[in-house]
């Protein structure tokens, strides 16, 4: 991540310094961004800097603002993970709550970052022990089931499919 920050995305040199609560990115011609540093995120509960001049939503270019909630596709977990945009680099890289201390480059963001689903498409909240119905392709009908466990990524394991972790997209289709 330091190599990415050291490469100037615009004219001038980039100097990124963490001073207490905020990280300040300075170009040769003045400040270009300001966002919470490690100490600031702890003090502010992982929220965006109060003086951030960006809107608290995804803008018209398809890029999120600092503080926006999103989903990042984690190669480690092979699943979409909810996150918050913590910081931005002038070159377009973003720091995400699920990848603290690492700026995800724009090329990777294009395929691995998406906005959270709209409220009407919100995921159902599941917990271990919940009783539901699962649509079985094998039996071509809805069968009663119980949630055995949940992962932090939102994947669920059901008693009718033990050993299989169902992702949120499949849950929307096959659970009620």
Structural class: mainly beta
Strands ordered across the widest β-sheet = 7-6-5-4-8
Number of separate domains: 2
Output the number of helix runs.
4
- The fraction of residues assigned to DSSP E strands is 35-45%
Gap from first CA to last CA:
43 Å
- What radius of gyration results from the CA coordinates? 20 Å
Number of E-type strands: 12
Low-confidence segments, given as residue ranges, are: 1-56, 118-122
C-alpha geometry: elongated
Largest sheet: 5 strands, antiparallel
Share of residues in helices:
10-25%
Mean pLDDT over the full residue set: 69
The ordered string of helix (H) and strand (E) elements is: HEEEHEEEEHEEEEEH
Q: Which tags fit this structure?
A:
176 residues; mainly beta; 2 domains; five-stranded antiparallel beta sheet; four-stranded antiparallel beta sheet; 4 helices; 36% strand; elongated; disordered N terminus
Structural features, described:
- The protein has 176 residues and is mostly beta strands.
- It is built from four helices and twelve strands, in the order H-E-E-E-H-E-E-E-E-H-E-E-E-E-E-H.
- The N terminus is likely disordered.
- A hairpin with a 4-residue loop joins strand 4 and strand 5.
- The longest helix has 7 residues.
- The radius of gyration is 20 Å and the shape is elongated.
- It has a five-stranded antiparallel sheet with strand order 7-6-5-4-8. Strands 9-10-11-12 form a four-stranded antiparallel sheet.
- Helices cover 14% and strands 36% of the residues.
């Amino acid at each position: 991540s330091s190599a990415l920050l050291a490469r100037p995305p615009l004219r001038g040199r980039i100097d990124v310094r963490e001073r207490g609560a905020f990280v300040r990115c300075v170009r040769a011609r003045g400040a270009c961004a300001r966002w919470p540093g490690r100490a600031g995120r702890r003090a502010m509960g992982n929220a965006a800097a109060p003086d951030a001049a960006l809107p608290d939503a995804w803008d018209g270019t398809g890029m999120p603002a600092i503080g926006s909630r999103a989903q990042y596709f984690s190669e480690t977990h092979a699943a979409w993970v909810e996150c918050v945009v913590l910081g931005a680099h002038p070159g377009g890289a973003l720091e995400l709550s699920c990848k603290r201390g690492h700026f995800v480059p724009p090329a990777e963001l294009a395929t691995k970052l998406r906005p959270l689903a709209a409220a009407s498409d919100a995921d159902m909240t599941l917990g271990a022990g919940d009783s539901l119905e699962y649509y079985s392709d094998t039996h071509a009908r809805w069968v009663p089931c119980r949630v055995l466990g949940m992962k932090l990524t939102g994947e669920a394991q059901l008693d009718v499919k033990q050993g299989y972790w169902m992702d949120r997209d499949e849950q929307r289709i096959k659970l009620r």
